[in-house]
Structure formats: structure tokens, C-alpha cells
Amino acid sequence: MSPSRQSRRPTRPPRRWPRLLAVAFLVVLGACDRPAGRADRPLVLLCGAGLQPAVEALVAAYHEHSGRRVVPDYGGSGLILTRARNGDPADLFMPGDVSYVEALAKDPGRVLERADLAFLVPCLVVRPGNPKGIATLADWRRDGIRAAIGNPAACEIGRVTVGLLEGHGLTPGELDAKQSLTVNELGLWVAMGDVDSAVVWESTAAALGARVDVVPLPVEAASVSRVTLAVLSNGAQTAAARDFLRFCCQPRGRAIVADCGFRVEPPPGVAALAGEAGGPP
């Protein structure tokens, strides 16, 4: 064959497919071998709706600290308790009061660890300028007052409100009050002028800012709710969930909660938070 013909012969491309197959095999093998607690798998937190301001700040700070994501799933405390009892796939549980955690803990082995994070204190909110002159819950009896309460079977603020009303000889039925499943909605109803007044948490009122006016209520131990975070056994990432709990209970976590308008120091007559860890993360 002449040299000129040899120069025209096409060159054969290098065989790369065996190398590509090997790389693909290693990628698949690595994906199958990932541990359940990897930072790319988010933790799921069943959370009371009224805790949203603090929780959003906590999960953002924890992601910055650890690289792990926490996905909150908000709802009324009674509703998320039902979901946790039914075995919803969640790693963490934080309702509006410790009583819901204690109710869940009656199922042996359901709660692996828990710690207190904050106190929720109720207050009255009214429309800006308080045009109806509402000073106490007793004013809800007056004609022309449109009140709203949380459903006591669905959310902690509803249970607390019923107790406060009973102290004034009132019941939700005789008030014909509008009912909501979450404390956040109650605050929004007042802010939008749908109702004249509602009982919400101090932290809920703080998040609404100038959209509502606040009428303080006497602080009684029976009406103060203790927020408790629990690690659930039905989650797939218990080690990571415990790590998030410890982050929330350390000084940095408590400071974040306080900055969002929640109380971390006990009101008079209420025991201090339990389960605090020492030292910054």
C-alpha cells in the first residue's frame, strides 16, 4: 500500500466506554452505600404552627452550622399529635405544649429524647387603635364584638383560651366566636379586620408588629405553655435528630428563640426549662 493511501485511513477513536461504565458503576455503588444520616437527607419536623418564626430561624442556623436540612411540617398541636401517633414518617416533634409530648410518650418507645425550648404566654390582640375599647376578655360579652378562638381540639392556643374564658364565666358557644385551627390564622384575622379580637401567643403578636395592638393578660401558670422538642423513634435518622435537638438547646439556639419574641426565662410561678445543654456548638 502506498504512503498516500495510508495517510488517508481514518483514525480510530479511543475506546472510552469501558472507563465510563466503571465510573457509572462506582457512582451507583456509592449511592447505595450512603448512610441514613447523611446531610443530604433532610430531617422532618412535625411542628406547631405558632412556633414558625423561631423554627424557621433555627433550621436556617442549623443548616449553616451542620450542612443538614430540617423540613418543618406545620399544623395545630392536636393535629400533629394525631399524625405522630399514626406513625407519619417524621424525625422530630415540637407541639405548642409539653402535654402533647407526654401524651405521645405514653406509647412505649415512641419518644427517644426530649428537651424544653421556650414558654408561650397568651395575650389579647385587637385591631390597631383598639376601636372597640377591648381591655379584658370580659369585654367579649359586649354587643358588636366579633371574637375568634382556636379550636381546642386542634391547637394549644384554643385549649388555653377556653380555660381563660372559663375564668370570666364565658364559653366559646355563648360568644358565637369564629374558630381557627392555628394561632397564626387568628392573628391574621384580627390584622385584616375580619374579627375584633383574639387570644394569641405573645410571639405571634410580635411577628404581626404594627398590624395589631396588644392587650396584655395576667400571666398565670395554668395558661403558660411549655414548648418541648422530642426525637421520635419512627424517624430514620435518630442520630441526626438528636444533634438538632442539642443545637436548639445550647446557648446559640436559645438566643435565636428569644430573638424571635419567645420567652426562654420562666414567668413567675413557672419552673425553668429542662434539658439545657452547656457550651456553644
CATH homologous superfamily title of the largest domain? Periplasmic binding protein-like II
CATH topology of the largest domain: D-Maltodextrin-Binding Protein, domain 2
User: Count of helices?
Assistant: 11
CATH class (first level) name of the largest domain: Alpha Beta
List the defining traits of the structure above.
alpha/beta; 5-stranded mixed sheet; 281 residues; D-Maltodextrin-Binding Protein, domain 2; disordered C terminus
Tell me what you see in this structure.
This protein is of the alpha/beta class and 281 residues long. The chain folds into two domains: 109 residues, Periplasmic binding protein-like II (D-Maltodextrin-Binding Protein, domain 2, 3-Layer(aba) Sandwich); 101 residues, Periplasmic binding protein-like II (D-Maltodextrin-Binding Protein, domain 2, 3-Layer(aba) Sandwich). Helix content is 38%, strand content 19%. The protein is built from eleven helices and ten strands. The strands form two sheets. Strands 2-1-3-10-4 form a five-stranded mixed β-sheet, sandwiched between helices. The termini are far apart.
Offer a quick outline of the entry:
This protein has 281 residues and is an alpha/beta fold.
Q: What's the layout of helices and strands?
A:
Layout: H1 3-8, H2 17-32, E1 43-48, H3 52-66, E2 70-75, H4 77-85, E3 92-94, H5 98-105, E4 111-120, E5 122-126, E6 147-150, H6 156-167, H7 172-175, E7 178-180, H8 183-192, E8 197-201, H9 202-208, E9 213-215, E10 225-232, H10 238-249, H11 251-259
Parallel strand pairs: 1-2, 1-3, 6-7, 6-8
Antiparallel strand pairs: 3-10, 4-10, 5-8, 5-9
